[in-house]
User: Which sequence fits this backbone?
């Protein structure tokens, strides 16, 4: 970003604009502003990653992306709040993974008893036609 402003003022302005966009409900513009702040070293970089993590978690329900943004923020600024977010997201992803694994297992038990892609089941179906 080149607006001809001193760096300190530029990054503060970008942060304020992104925060205003968020408050006004213009979430795509807010996300763009926060993303811009993550692209270079500045005093708002960790906070911008935190805002992106919140957006991915609460709006997009993309917990893997939220966890990635949280970890990037932690690399820059290790805070108790970000550690709690990391733990919560990790737990949520583990729970979702276990739920998906269970659904896959339930689907196989309800089916023909043969795993998907099993050639023996296909041969049986072919003979009965």
Assistant:
């Amino acid at each position: 970003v080149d607006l001809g402003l001193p760096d300190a003022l530029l990054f503060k302005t970008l942060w304020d604009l992104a925060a205003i966009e968020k408050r006004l409900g213009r979430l795509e513009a807010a996300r763009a502003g926060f993303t811009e702040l993550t692209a270079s070293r500045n005093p708002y970089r960790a906070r911008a990653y935190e805002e992106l993590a919140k957006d991915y978690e609460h709006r997009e329900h993309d917990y893997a992306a939220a966890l990635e943004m949280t970890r990037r923020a932690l690399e820059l600024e290790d805070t108790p709040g970000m550690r709690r977010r990391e733990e919560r997201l990790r737990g949520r992803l583990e729970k979702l993974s276990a739920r998906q694994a269970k659904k896959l297992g339930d689907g196989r038990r309800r089916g023909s008893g043969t795993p998907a892609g099993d050639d023996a089941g296909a041969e049986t179906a072919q003979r009965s036609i």
Summary: Residues 5 and 11 are 9 Å apart (CA to CA). The helical segments are 7-23, 27-38, 45-60, 63-76, 80-110, 119-128.
